[in-house]
Amino acid sequence: PLPPSQDDTPRLRAAAEATKQRLYITLEGDWSTMTRDAVQRRLMGVLDSLSTSHPDLDARLILPSKGAWVAEQISELEAVLSSPAESGALDTMFRQRKSMGLHALDNVHMDAPCPPSLKVVGWDAKQCQLLPQGSHGAVVLGGTFDRLHGGHKLLLAMSCLAANRRLLIGVSEGPLLADKTLGDVLLPFSQRRERLSHYLTSTRPGIEYEIVPIVDPFGPSIVDEGLDCIVVSKETEKGGASVNKRRAAKGMRELVVDVVDLVGAE
Question: What are all long-range contacts of 108-112, with beta carbons under 8 Å and residues at least 24 apart?
């Protein structure tokens, strides 16, 4: 297993210092040998490092996905933050972008060394294949998802890794927002859905994403017979049990409850 490396911190912070608005981060390593808990620690370590040093930076994790090189396809990219050792992989990436008609990128070399476990942009296509397929065909989760923070991003990343076909996200609306702290300043549903969709598009392509409003704690989780798994945080674990109780009462198949520990990822 590849736990978060202390060597990631200077690399990440150097990249954050060079970024004004949005930083896309691709993770490497032999994912096929990693336990679920090791994957979660790996992702949390990256998110924690950036949230501590640059809390206002829009940091986005890119998960390896079926051999796809997601980074080279992101049209809004302006620069690649790299080390000289990455020149070969980046040359391939630049050629691919050119063949797709995308604009050229600035290549900014950073002083911080690049550990073998993390690169800011680009990865070996062979390593992409090592990411195991999601354990569940269709996964559901819910939340408010207002102004995405580290906890949201960890929950979404683990949900993307759990699904191999479809991810259904219920976004709180109406009555569910009535008792929210500072509920009057929450973004409207349309903006939260748009931001979620934009974030997920680069996180792990190849998955079908569906984002719907929910006005009660259950939403589609107790009516959609095609679901296999529900992802919850430790704080909302009881909600997963309540969903299964409702499904069982209707004669529906119970869902696997996948619990993500968000401690430290806020």
Answer: 108/18, 108/79, 108/80, 108/81, 108/82, 109/82, 109/83, 109/84, 110/11, 110/14, 110/15, 110/18, 110/81, 110/82, 110/83, 111/14, 112/10, 112/11, 112/13, 112/14, 112/15, 112/83
The rounded distance, in Å, linking the Cα atoms of 183 and 205 is: 32
What region, left, alpha or beta, does residue 64 occupy, with left being phi > 0 and alpha being psi -120 to 50 degrees?
beta
Q: What angle do CA 252, 257, 263 make, to 5 degrees?
A: 155
Helix (H, G, I), strand (E, B) or coil at 178: coil
Per-residue pLDDT of the chain in tens (266 residues, 90 and over written 9): 233 455 677 778 888 888 888 998 877 666 667 778 888 888 888 888 888 888 889 998 888 655 455 666 788 888 888 777 667 777 888 888 888 888 888 888 776 554 443 333 333 333 333 345 578 999 999 999 998 989 999 999 999 989 989 999 999 999 888 877 666 678 999 999 999 999 998 888 778 999 999 999 999 999 999 999 999 999 999 999 999 999 999 999 999 999 998 865 55
Residue pair 127/30 in contact by the 8 Å Cβ criterion:
yes
Closest CA relative to residue 105, chosen from 82, 131, 128? 82
> What pTM did the predictor assign?
0.83
